[in-house]
């Protein structure tokens, strides 16, 4: 069964409070989402394999370790996931970036896909799927399915805020995918939004309604 990692670092929790605030404008919201994403990337990449090497310092030769040639991919669920990509790339600049376009039907709350562009070697990469909100879980489960259909076998889901309903959906649909989140909120409302949440992440990132 997949593991849920609640990342409660003080800096992340402080910045999460700021993006929850309804008075935070789009520019500050974008900057904070990127900063939180960078901080979360430390935990998400904790298990990257290392190999021993040596490095010559100004004073001699030191034993050292480097990442063991592992290739990483960052996959954004459009459009809100775009806000997390820059922050992830600050820490993993060599990662390839893919995009999956999914929107939620306002009547049925079911996910509908409209776009998918991924690195050609997606099956050889450790993938980090990013989307700020894990609400019903339908979009995340759909995106994970797309990745698996294209050969992906190593996937982590990274969100800022999750609802219990979305966590259960992903765990049931994809028990091999771990979930990383900065908060687990109370529930969903009748429109499928996370309560208390932070509103529509895409609208707040890009200043749309």
Short descriptors:
209 residues, alpha/beta, eight-stranded mixed beta sheet, two-stranded antiparallel sheet, 12 strands, 33% helix, globular
What count of helical segments does DSSP give? 6
Quantity of strands, as a count: 12
Biggest pleated-sheet summary: 8 strands, mixed
Radius of gyration: 18 Å
Mean pLDDT across residues: 94
Q: Write down the overall geometry.
A: globular
Order of helices and strands: EHHEEEHEEEEHEHEEEH
Indicate the proportion of strand residues: 25-35%
Task: Name the helicity range.
Answer: 25-40%
Instruction: Give the end-to-end Cα distance, rounded to a whole number of Å.
Output: 37 Å
What oligomerization state is this entry in? single chain
Question: Strand pairing plus helix content: what structural class?
Answer: alpha/beta
Q: Report the uncertain regions.
A: none
Describe the overall structure.
Helix 1 runs antiparallel to helix 2. This protein starts with a strand and ends with a helix. With 209 residues, the chain is α/β, with parallel strands linked by helices. It has six helices and twelve strands.
Describe, in short, the structure shown:
The chain has 209 residues and is of the alpha/beta class.
Helices and strands in order:
Blueprint lengths: L3 E3 L3 H11 L5 H19 L5 E8 L2 E8 L4 E7 L3 H10 L4 E9 L6 E7 L8 E5 L2 E2 L3 H12 L4 E9 L1 H10 L4 E7 L2 E2 L5 E2 L5 H6 L3
Parallel strand pairs: 1-10, 4-5, 4-7, 7-9, 8-9, 9-10
Antiparallel strand pairs: 2-3, 5-6, 11-12
Helix pairs in contact: 1-2, 2-3
């Amino acid at each position: 069964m997949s593991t849920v990692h609640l990342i409660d670092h003080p800096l992340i929790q402080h910045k999460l409070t700021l993006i929850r605030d309804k008075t935070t404008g789009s520019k500050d919201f974008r900057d904070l989402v990127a900063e939180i994403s960078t901080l979360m990337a430390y935990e998400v990449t904790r298990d990257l394999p290392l190999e021993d090497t040596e490095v010559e310092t100004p004073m001699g030769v030191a034993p050292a370790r480097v990442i063991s040639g592992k290739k990483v991919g960052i996959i954004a669920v459009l459009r809100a996931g775009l806000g997390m990509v820059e922050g992830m790339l600050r820490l993993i600049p060599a990662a390839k970036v893919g995009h999956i376009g999914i929107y939620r039907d306002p009547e049925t709350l079911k996910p509908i896909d409209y776009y998918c562009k991924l690195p050609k070697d997606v099956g050889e990469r450790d993938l980090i799927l990013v989307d700020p909100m894990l609400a019903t879980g339908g979009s995340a489960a759909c995106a994970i399915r797309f990745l698996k259909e294209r050969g992906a076998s190593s996937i982590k889901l990274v969100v800022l805020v999750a609802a219990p309903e979305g966590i259960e959906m992903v765990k049931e649909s994809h028990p091999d995918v771990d979930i990383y989140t900065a908060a687990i909120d109370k529930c969903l409302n009748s429109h499928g939004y996370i309560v208390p949440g932070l509103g529509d992440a895409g609208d707040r990132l890009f200043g749309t309604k």
